[in-house]
Amino acid sequence: MNNFIFNIYRIIVPKPIRTKLLKKRLRIQITEYLESLPENELDSDRQSVLDYVKNNEVTTFPYDFTKNYSPSSVKVYTDKEKRLKYVIQDGHKLYFKKRWSESRIKRSYSQLLMEQDEKSPHRYLNDDFYVNDSDIVADFGTAEGNFALSIVEKVKHLYLFERDKQWIEALHETFKPWGHKVTIVQKYVSNLDDDKHCKGDSFFENKEITFLKIDVDGAETVLLEGIKNILKRQIPIKVALCTYHQNDDEKNFSAFLKQFDFNITTSDGFMIFYYDKKMQSPFIRRGLIRAWK
Description:
The chain is an alpha/beta fold. It has ten helices and twelve strands. It has helices at 3-12, 15-36, 44-55, 102-115, 146-151, 165-174, 200-203, 220-225, 228-233, 249-258, and strands at residues 77-79, 84-89, 92-95, 136-140, 157-161, 182-185, 188-190, 197-199, 211-214, 238-242, 263-266, 288-292.
């Protein structure tokens, strides 16, 4: 489909219908791809995806654990003084953007809970890869801060990097009880320094850092270019790096980190990131790399 026809298609066909058609097409493509694999390549991880998509609509996480989550089970509260809505996470208030409706927060937070389920390929931490009270953590791509809130009482210090002004407002309220150990930075982390961006190497030139969480909606490559000095110098260090935004992220990021002598493993399972308009075979992607040295 050329660009002209695609643009007409987007105008004429409502988004919900386009998404449904996309998922139907992907279901066929993923099934055909996985069934075509040689027997020695169709491991248990891939077989479980095949079993799921043959019997269910395509979803970001093609696993039955997703059925445990529903927006209707999320309770949203309103802080009338701050005019912000929030949910309760681990006994603490997690605030959301002021303009977000209750229904949108319910959908979003249900998805966040799903992402960090112990069976999710998007889960940053596990029993072998975790943070402790000596860790200084950089959360690159903080957004609403659910990951940061889940570890704030376990770590020595947290640096939260988020550019969106409305998220900044919510983050300040969420992390107000830990102002002594949380630093909020309103910039994109990239491979340059200017009013909107900062290089991780520049920011942490004279600061200690022991754990990096990187989830920046497809901008991971330029971010990695800007933290080479951190990766060279810092031992020990751990990196939780998302690899699902683009087709070759897992391969490219693994090669990049191995330059700096990292040990690397991937999360279990696969994601189907159907939001990527350039998606192609093999269609399924590892959620993230866990790296350490």
